[in-house]
Amino acid sequence: MITIPDVARASEAARDAATGLGNSLALLTALNQQLPGINEGGPALALLQIALDRSPGSSGRFGPGDDEAFLVGYAALLEDFTARWASDEEGRPVGGAFRIGSDEFALLLPSAGRLGARRAAAALLAGGESARVALSIGIGIAEPSAANIGGVLLAADGALRTAVARGGGRAKLLVARPPDALGAQRVVEWLAERAIDTQQLLDKATQLALTDPLTGLPNQRALELFLVTELPRARRREYVLALLLIDGDSLREYNSRHGYSAGDEWVRALGATLARETRASDLAVRWRQGDEFIVALPETTREATTEIGERIRRAIPRATASLPAPATISVGIALFPEDGETREELLLRAEAANRLAKSLGKNRIAFASDVGRCG
């Protein structure tokens, strides 16, 4: 099965050794994952850049011997803070805390908006005062009109510089805008100041951005990139390419009965099974969220696709036998060029075939060409 290489090493490269928080690379990767949702009309994202004040006479100044213990403790405080201020409707954290410099941290609050970001900054400043830690905070807001990595980095960094220049101990907010040539140079400087090798950044960020964190499989973006090259190749060489849309039959009920942690184990087991049961040339990805997966089979036939689909379907109950309840799957299959010649057409046809498989009793495969005949 095709995988995104060096994912484990990339994860280590994205972690700050002293505090265990994500580092600047992890922050950039997280922004790369979150910002597309903003561009699609999601709520405004907030990036808080926090500087600890070590200047002489600062009420929060601490000596060199206290550095490690202080930083570890402050990192834990920020993680707890982020969990409270950035979680989904089910209470699971969706934001992140990062150490991006010797005395600098960042908080990513994906759905805070301007008001939520100001409230979070005020709470951080108040907490700093009670802990005798002097802080300055820059807030960058990414709204749909200008949601890009460079813009939000420059907004947070510029806001922080303004807050520090005004005497520190305060927060300043700026709304991101697309960086011009001067802004692009400032982004490069931002990376250089944090000792990030640009090529390493691109390599590692790409690996992380194309990987689903729960299963370790490639994600939706990886499939899109794969099809950009594979569909034209299939057209030129006149071979069949199959998309198998695989959906667990009862994850919602499973989560309700056994809890979301057990549901995550269920999803991981499905992902591991796909990795084992597909060919070296195939691509298995976690699609969207929940228990949806897609397997792309280049240079295949209808018969070979049926064999692989059935092999996966039969393997799932065995792979999940040790869980509180074994899983079954429904598989919808679309073939290029028979069922469509574009990514969009093939996905729509695979979804229709998956719905057909479920309507026929679940735990089975169905081809897009069967939809009309069985409807």
Automatic annotation (TrEMBL):
Please cite one Gene Ontology biological process associated with this protein. Answer: cell adhesion involved in single-species biofilm formation
Q: Which Gene3D superfamilies match?
A: 3.30.70.270
Gene Ontology molecular function terms on file:
diguanylate cyclase activity
Q: Name one GO cellular component term.
A: plasma membrane
PROSITE patterns, A to Z: GGDEF
Query: Broadest EC class?
Result: transferase
- NCBIfam families from the entry? GGDEF
PANTHER family recorded: DIGUANYLATE CYCLASE DGCM-RELATED, REGULATORY COMPONENTS OF SENSORY TRANSDUCTION SYSTEM
What is the protein's name according to its record? diguanylate cyclase
**Organism, scientific name:** uncultured Thermomicrobiales bacterium
